[in-house]
Amino acid sequence: MHINYQLPENIKELLNTKRNEVKPAFAELIRQGGYVPPHMDLLIDAISILSMGKNILLKGPTGAGKTKFAETLSYLFNQPMFSVNCSVDLDAESLLGFKTLAYEDKKQVIEFVPGPVINAMTSGTLLYIDEINMAKPETLPLINGVLDYRRTITNPFTNEVITAKEGFGVVAAINEGYIGTVPLNEALKNRFIVIEVPYIEGEQLRNLIQTNTRLTNEKTIELFVKLSSDLVTAVSQGKLSEDAASIRALLDACDLSSIIPAKRAILRSIVDKLDEEREREFVMNLTETLF
Ligand SMILES: Nc1ncnc2c1ncn2[C@@H]1O[C@H](COP(=O)(O)OP(=O)(O)OP(=O)(O)O)[C@@H](O)[C@H]1O
Ligand SMILES: [Mg+2]
Protein backbone atom coordinates (compact mmCIF):
# COMPACT_ATOMS: atom_id res chain seq x y z
CA MET A 1 0.00 0.00 0.00
CA HIS A 2 1.49 3.35 -0.96
CA ILE A 3 0.40 6.40 0.93
CA ASN A 4 0.85 9.94 -0.26
CA TYR A 5 2.31 11.58 2.82
CA GLN A 6 1.89 15.33 3.22
CA LEU A 7 5.55 16.10 3.90
CA PRO A 8 7.16 19.56 4.06
CA GLU A 9 9.16 20.60 0.98
CA ASN A 10 12.59 20.40 2.66
CA ILE A 11 11.88 16.82 3.75
CA LYS A 12 10.67 15.87 0.27
CA GLU A 13 13.95 17.26 -1.06
CA LEU A 14 15.95 15.08 1.33
CA LEU A 15 14.09 12.06 0.03
CA ASN A 16 14.51 13.04 -3.60
CA THR A 17 18.29 13.40 -3.33
CA LYS A 18 18.47 9.82 -2.07
CA ARG A 19 15.79 8.50 -4.39
CA ASN A 20 17.63 9.69 -7.46
CA GLU A 21 20.81 7.83 -6.66
CA VAL A 22 21.07 4.79 -8.90
CA LYS A 23 20.98 1.60 -6.87
CA PRO A 24 21.01 -1.33 -9.24
CA ALA A 25 22.16 -3.92 -6.68
CA PHE A 26 19.69 -5.49 -4.28
CA ALA A 27 16.70 -3.65 -5.76
CA GLU A 28 14.53 -6.58 -4.62
CA LEU A 29 15.22 -5.47 -1.05
CA ILE A 30 13.45 -2.15 -1.50
CA ARG A 31 10.42 -2.64 0.75
CA GLN A 32 6.77 -1.76 0.44
CA GLY A 33 5.52 1.23 2.43
CA GLY A 34 2.21 1.49 4.22
CA TYR A 35 2.99 2.77 7.70
CA VAL A 36 0.31 5.14 9.00
CA PRO A 37 1.96 7.52 11.48
CA PRO A 38 0.02 8.83 14.50
CA HIS A 39 1.58 12.17 13.68
CA MET A 40 3.58 13.35 10.65
CA ASP A 41 6.43 14.39 12.99
CA LEU A 42 7.39 10.73 13.37
CA LEU A 43 8.10 10.41 9.66
CA ILE A 44 9.72 13.84 9.37
CA ASP A 45 12.07 13.09 12.25
CA ALA A 46 12.95 9.63 10.98
CA ILE A 47 13.72 10.93 7.49
CA SER A 48 15.87 13.74 8.94
CA ILE A 49 17.81 11.38 11.20
CA LEU A 50 18.54 8.84 8.45
CA SER A 51 19.51 11.46 5.89
CA MET A 52 22.14 12.75 8.32
CA GLY A 53 23.60 9.27 8.55
CA LYS A 54 22.45 8.76 12.13
CA ASN A 55 20.82 5.62 13.53
CA ILE A 56 17.17 5.25 14.53
CA LEU A 57 15.83 3.13 17.38
CA LEU A 58 12.10 2.50 17.03
CA LYS A 59 10.71 1.79 20.46
CA GLY A 60 7.22 0.55 21.11
CA PRO A 61 4.89 -2.29 22.05
CA THR A 62 4.27 -5.36 19.93
CA GLY A 63 2.17 -4.84 16.81
CA ALA A 64 2.54 -1.04 16.83
CA GLY A 65 3.95 -0.97 13.31
CA LYS A 66 7.70 -0.70 14.01
CA THR A 67 8.66 -3.13 11.26
CA LYS A 68 6.17 -1.47 8.92
CA PHE A 69 7.70 1.91 9.80
CA ALA A 70 11.21 0.69 8.94
CA GLU A 71 9.97 -0.79 5.67
CA THR A 72 8.26 2.48 4.83
CA LEU A 73 11.59 4.31 5.26
CA SER A 74 13.15 1.88 2.78
CA TYR A 75 10.28 2.62 0.42
CA LEU A 76 10.47 6.40 0.84
CA PHE A 77 14.25 6.55 0.34
CA ASN A 78 13.96 3.95 -2.42
CA GLN A 79 16.80 2.09 -0.72
CA PRO A 80 17.21 -1.65 -0.29
CA MET A 81 17.01 -2.75 3.34
CA PHE A 82 18.93 -5.73 4.71
CA SER A 83 17.64 -7.15 7.91
CA VAL A 84 18.90 -8.98 10.98
CA ASN A 85 16.60 -10.70 13.42
CA CYS A 86 18.13 -10.80 16.85
CA SER A 87 17.80 -13.83 19.09
CA VAL A 88 20.01 -15.45 21.71
CA ASP A 89 21.56 -17.46 18.86
CA LEU A 90 22.66 -14.36 16.97
CA ASP A 91 26.40 -14.56 16.43
CA ALA A 92 29.17 -12.87 14.46
CA GLU A 93 28.48 -15.07 11.43
CA SER A 94 24.80 -14.18 11.20
CA LEU A 95 25.69 -10.50 11.38
CA LEU A 96 28.83 -10.34 9.30
CA GLY A 97 28.92 -13.46 7.13
CA PHE A 98 30.86 -16.70 6.97
CA LYS A 99 33.63 -18.49 5.11
CA THR A 100 32.86 -21.39 2.80
CA LEU A 101 34.61 -23.60 0.26
CA ALA A 102 34.09 -22.74 -3.39
CA TYR A 103 35.61 -23.68 -6.74
CA GLU A 104 37.49 -21.36 -9.03
CA ASP A 105 38.77 -22.97 -12.26
CA LYS A 106 38.34 -26.38 -10.61
CA LYS A 107 40.54 -25.24 -7.75
CA GLN A 108 39.21 -25.18 -4.24
CA VAL A 109 39.23 -21.72 -2.69
CA ILE A 110 37.91 -20.25 0.52
CA GLU A 111 35.23 -17.69 -0.13
CA PHE A 112 33.63 -15.20 2.21
CA VAL A 113 29.85 -14.92 1.98
CA PRO A 114 28.89 -11.49 3.34
CA GLY A 115 26.11 -11.19 5.91
CA PRO A 116 23.56 -8.38 6.21
CA VAL A 117 25.80 -5.88 8.05
CA ILE A 118 28.66 -6.17 5.54
CA ASN A 119 26.24 -6.16 2.60
CA ALA A 120 24.48 -3.02 3.75
CA MET A 121 27.82 -1.29 4.48
CA THR A 122 29.47 -2.13 1.18
CA SER A 123 26.40 -1.27 -0.89
CA GLY A 124 25.61 1.91 1.10
CA THR A 125 22.05 0.86 1.88
CA LEU A 126 19.81 0.40 4.90
CA LEU A 127 20.10 -2.15 7.66
CA TYR A 128 17.18 -3.13 9.89
CA ILE A 129 18.03 -4.75 13.23
CA ASP A 130 14.85 -6.23 14.67
CA GLU A 131 14.29 -7.04 18.36
CA ILE A 132 17.70 -5.60 19.17
CA ASN A 133 17.29 -6.42 22.87
CA MET A 134 16.86 -10.14 22.19
CA ALA A 135 20.54 -10.60 21.34
CA LYS A 136 23.05 -11.84 23.91
CA PRO A 137 24.71 -8.77 25.48
CA GLU A 138 28.14 -9.72 24.11
CA THR A 139 27.11 -10.03 20.45
CA LEU A 140 26.10 -6.55 19.34
CA PRO A 141 29.16 -4.71 20.68
CA LEU A 142 30.90 -6.38 17.72
CA ILE A 143 29.28 -3.73 15.55
CA ASN A 144 29.73 -0.74 17.89
CA GLY A 145 32.22 0.75 15.43
CA VAL A 146 29.70 0.33 12.63
CA LEU A 147 27.08 2.21 14.62
CA ASP A 148 29.13 5.26 15.56
CA TYR A 149 30.86 7.97 13.53
CA ARG A 150 33.57 5.53 12.45
CA ARG A 151 31.15 3.45 10.37
CA THR A 152 33.95 0.88 10.26
CA ILE A 153 34.58 -2.73 11.17
CA THR A 154 37.49 -5.09 10.89
CA ASN A 155 35.93 -8.23 9.51
CA PRO A 156 37.12 -10.93 11.94
CA PHE A 157 36.79 -13.59 9.23
CA THR A 158 38.94 -11.89 6.60
CA ASN A 159 40.82 -9.23 8.59
CA GLU A 160 39.65 -6.72 6.02
CA VAL A 161 38.81 -3.22 7.25
CA ILE A 162 35.43 -2.24 5.90
CA THR A 163 34.11 1.30 5.89
CA ALA A 164 30.47 1.89 5.07
CA LYS A 165 29.65 3.54 1.78
CA GLU A 166 27.70 6.79 1.69
CA GLY A 167 24.02 6.04 2.15
CA PHE A 168 24.46 3.33 4.77
CA GLY A 169 21.89 3.75 7.55
CA VAL A 170 20.63 1.73 10.49
CA VAL A 171 17.11 1.36 11.84
CA ALA A 172 16.64 -0.87 14.88
CA ALA A 173 13.50 -1.89 16.73
CA ILE A 174 13.02 -2.64 20.40
CA ASN A 175 10.13 -3.98 22.37
CA GLU A 176 11.01 -3.23 25.97
CA GLY A 177 10.15 -5.43 28.89
CA TYR A 178 9.18 -8.60 27.07
CA ILE A 179 10.20 -12.08 28.16
CA GLY A 180 13.56 -12.98 26.68
CA THR A 181 14.65 -9.39 26.24
CA VAL A 182 17.61 -7.89 28.06
CA PRO A 183 18.04 -4.20 28.91
CA LEU A 184 19.90 -2.58 26.08
CA ASN A 185 23.51 -1.91 26.89
CA GLU A 186 24.01 1.85 27.47
CA ALA A 187 26.85 2.18 24.98
CA LEU A 188 24.66 0.56 22.34
CA LYS A 189 21.58 2.64 23.17
CA ASN A 190 23.74 5.75 23.10
CA ARG A 191 24.45 5.21 19.42
CA PHE A 192 20.80 5.63 18.44
CA ILE A 193 18.20 8.38 18.29
CA VAL A 194 14.96 7.08 19.75
CA ILE A 195 11.54 7.36 18.14
CA GLU A 196 8.62 6.11 20.20
CA VAL A 197 6.06 4.24 18.11
CA PRO A 198 2.65 4.17 19.84
CA TYR A 199 -0.52 2.35 18.81
CA ILE A 200 -2.48 4.51 16.37
CA GLU A 201 -6.01 5.57 17.24
CA GLY A 202 -9.09 7.37 15.91
CA GLU A 203 -9.20 8.56 12.32
CA GLN A 204 -5.86 6.96 11.38
CA LEU A 205 -6.91 3.62 12.79
CA ARG A 206 -10.22 3.79 10.92
CA ASN A 207 -8.30 4.38 7.67
CA LEU A 208 -5.95 1.50 8.39
CA ILE A 209 -8.85 -0.89 9.05
CA GLN A 210 -10.59 0.26 5.86
CA THR A 211 -7.54 -0.16 3.67
CA ASN A 212 -5.83 -3.15 5.30
CA THR A 213 -8.59 -5.54 6.33
CA ARG A 214 -11.54 -7.30 4.74
CA LEU A 215 -13.96 -5.51 6.97
CA THR A 216 -16.24 -3.18 5.00
CA ASN A 217 -19.17 -2.56 7.35
CA GLU A 218 -18.74 1.04 8.50
CA LYS A 219 -20.63 0.49 11.75
CA THR A 220 -18.50 -2.49 12.73
CA ILE A 221 -15.31 -0.59 11.83
CA GLU A 222 -16.45 2.23 14.11
CA LEU A 223 -16.98 -0.25 16.96
CA PHE A 224 -13.49 -1.68 16.50
CA VAL A 225 -12.01 1.84 16.64
CA LYS A 226 -13.93 2.39 19.89
CA LEU A 227 -12.80 -0.99 21.26
CA SER A 228 -9.19 -0.13 20.48
CA SER A 229 -9.46 3.24 22.18
CA ASP A 230 -10.96 1.59 25.30
CA LEU A 231 -8.16 -0.99 25.29
CA VAL A 232 -5.50 1.72 25.03
CA THR A 233 -7.11 3.56 27.96
CA ALA A 234 -7.25 0.37 30.05
CA VAL A 235 -3.57 -0.26 29.29
CA SER A 236 -2.64 3.26 30.36
CA GLN A 237 -4.55 2.71 33.62
CA GLY A 238 -2.62 -0.47 34.25
CA LYS A 239 -5.71 -2.67 33.94
CA LEU A 240 -4.34 -4.59 30.96
CA SER A 241 -0.91 -5.59 29.75
CA GLU A 242 0.34 -3.53 26.84
CA ASP A 243 -0.09 -6.12 24.09
CA ALA A 244 -3.85 -6.29 24.75
CA ALA A 245 -4.08 -3.14 22.64
CA SER A 246 -1.88 -4.46 19.81
CA ILE A 247 -2.95 -3.14 16.43
CA ARG A 248 -1.79 -6.39 14.84
CA ALA A 249 -4.29 -8.35 16.96
CA LEU A 250 -7.01 -5.79 16.29
CA LEU A 251 -6.51 -6.04 12.52
CA ASP A 252 -6.72 -9.84 12.80
CA ALA A 253 -10.00 -9.50 14.68
CA CYS A 254 -11.33 -7.11 12.01
CA ASP A 255 -10.36 -9.53 9.22
CA LEU A 256 -11.98 -12.49 10.95
CA SER A 257 -15.15 -10.62 11.77
CA SER A 258 -15.82 -10.17 8.07
CA ILE A 259 -16.81 -13.87 8.21
CA ILE A 260 -17.46 -14.93 11.81
CA PRO A 261 -19.25 -12.93 14.56
CA ALA A 262 -17.14 -10.06 15.91
CA LYS A 263 -17.29 -11.33 19.49
CA ARG A 264 -15.74 -14.66 18.54
CA ALA A 265 -13.18 -12.91 16.34
CA ILE A 266 -12.16 -10.78 19.33
CA LEU A 267 -12.05 -13.82 21.60
CA ARG A 268 -9.62 -15.62 19.30
CA SER A 269 -7.50 -12.65 18.19
CA ILE A 270 -7.26 -10.63 21.40
CA VAL A 271 -8.74 -12.27 24.51
CA ASP A 272 -7.23 -15.73 24.34
CA LYS A 273 -3.71 -14.30 24.12
CA LEU A 274 -3.99 -12.68 27.52
CA ASP A 275 -2.38 -14.56 30.39
CA GLU A 276 -4.56 -13.49 33.28
CA GLU A 277 -8.20 -14.49 33.73
CA ARG A 278 -8.92 -11.01 35.12
CA GLU A 279 -7.67 -9.42 31.89
CA ARG A 280 -9.61 -11.82 29.70
CA GLU A 281 -12.81 -11.06 31.61
CA PHE A 282 -12.19 -7.34 31.33
CA VAL A 283 -11.85 -7.44 27.53
CA MET A 284 -14.84 -9.79 27.14
CA ASN A 285 -17.01 -7.42 29.18
CA LEU A 286 -15.85 -4.51 27.07
CA THR A 287 -16.72 -6.47 23.94
CA GLU A 288 -20.17 -7.35 25.30
CA THR A 289 -21.00 -3.70 25.85
CA LEU A 290 -19.92 -2.73 22.33
CA PHE A 291 -20.90 -5.58 20.02
N1 LIG B 1 0.58 2.60 12.30
C1 LIG B 1 0.47 1.54 11.48
N2 LIG B 1 0.51 1.70 10.14
C2 LIG B 1 0.41 0.65 9.31
N3 LIG B 1 0.26 -0.62 9.71
C3 LIG B 1 0.21 -0.84 11.03
C4 LIG B 1 0.33 0.22 11.97
N4 LIG B 1 0.25 -0.30 13.22
C5 LIG B 1 0.11 -1.63 13.06
N5 LIG B 1 0.08 -1.94 11.75
C6 LIG B 1 -0.10 -3.29 11.18
O1 LIG B 1 -0.07 -4.21 12.27
C7 LIG B 1 0.74 -5.34 11.95
C8 LIG B 1 1.93 -5.41 12.86
O2 LIG B 1 2.87 -4.38 12.53
P1 LIG B 1 4.44 -4.59 12.69
O3 LIG B 1 4.79 -5.98 12.38
O4 LIG B 1 5.11 -3.51 11.95
O5 LIG B 1 4.55 -4.33 14.29
P2 LIG B 1 5.84 -4.32 15.21
O6 LIG B 1 5.76 -3.07 16.02
O7 LIG B 1 7.06 -4.53 14.38
O8 LIG B 1 5.57 -5.55 16.17
P3 LIG B 1 6.64 -6.55 16.88
O9 LIG B 1 7.25 -5.76 18.01
O10 LIG B 1 5.77 -7.63 17.40
O11 LIG B 1 7.62 -6.98 15.85
C9 LIG B 1 1.12 -5.21 10.47
O12 LIG B 1 0.16 -5.87 9.71
C10 LIG B 1 1.03 -3.71 10.25
O13 LIG B 1 0.72 -3.44 8.92
MG1 LIG C 1 8.43 -6.09 14.23
TrEMBL record:
Organism: Oceanobacillus zhaokaii
Domain of life of the organism encoding this protein: Bacteria
GO molecular function: ATP binding; ATP hydrolysis activity
Residues annotated as domain AAA+ ATPase: 52-201
Xref: Pfam families: AAA_5
Similarity comment: family membership: Belongs to the CbbQ/NirQ/NorQ/GpvN family.
Protein name in the entry: AAA+ ATPase domain-containing protein
